[in-house]
Write a structure and sequence with these properties.
This protein is α+β, with helices and mostly antiparallel strands. The chain has 3 helices and 6 strands.
C-alpha cells in the first residue's frame, strides 16, 4: 500500500502544479475520462468542461497554493484523498483573497495508473481538520 500511496501523492503533487501554473494539459492528463469536478463555484462534467474551467481560472485568477495531504485511503482500485491548501487565490475582484480550501479527490486505478474521477472543493478554513474515514 505504501507504494500506491506514493503514486497518489505524486498525482496530487502534479495536480498542485497544474493549478499553480494553469497548465490545463497537465490537469487533463491527471483525470479519468469519466471525471466529474465539483468546485465550490459549479459542477463540471467531462474533460471539455474541465479544460474550459482551467482556461477561465488561468485568465481570471492568480493562484499560489501549497497542498497539505491530510489523508489517503486506498481500497483496491479506488481511493480518496483529503487535501488542505494554504496560499491564496487572488480573484478577479481586486484585493479579495481566500485563505485556501479543502479538496476531496476520488481516485480510480485504471490500467495501472491512478486517475482523478471526482474532485470536490470548498472554500473553508484549511486549519479545520477533517477525516471521512473515522
Amino acid at each position: 500500500m505504501v507504494n500506491e500511496e506514493k503514486k497518489i501523492e505524486k498525482l496530487l503533487n502534479l495536480y498542485e502544479k497544474s493549478i499553480n501554473t494553469a497548465d490545463k494539459k497537465l490537469a487533463e492528463s491527471l483525470y479519468s475520462t469519466e471525471e466529474i469536478m465539483s468546485p465550490s463555484v459549479a459542477a463540471k462534467v467531462g474533460v471539455d468542461n474541465l479544460l474550459d474551467f482551467y482556461e477561465r481560472i488561468a485568465s481570471q485568477n492568480q493562484i499560489n497554493l501549497d497542498f497539505i495531504i491530510e489523508e489517503i485511503v486506498i481500497d483496491e482500485d479506488m481511493a480518496y484523498a483529503v487535501i488542505n491548501s494554504k496560499g491564496t487565490y487572488e480573484f478577479i475582484f481586486p484585493g479579495l483573497e481566500s485563505p485556501g480550501n479543502r479538496i476531496i479527490f476520488l481516485l480510480k486505478k485504471t490500467d495501472g495508473e491512478w486517475k482523478i474521477v471526482q474532485h470536490l472543493s470548498d472554500d473553508l478554513d484549511p486549519k479545520r481538520p477533517i477525516s471521512i474515514a473515522k
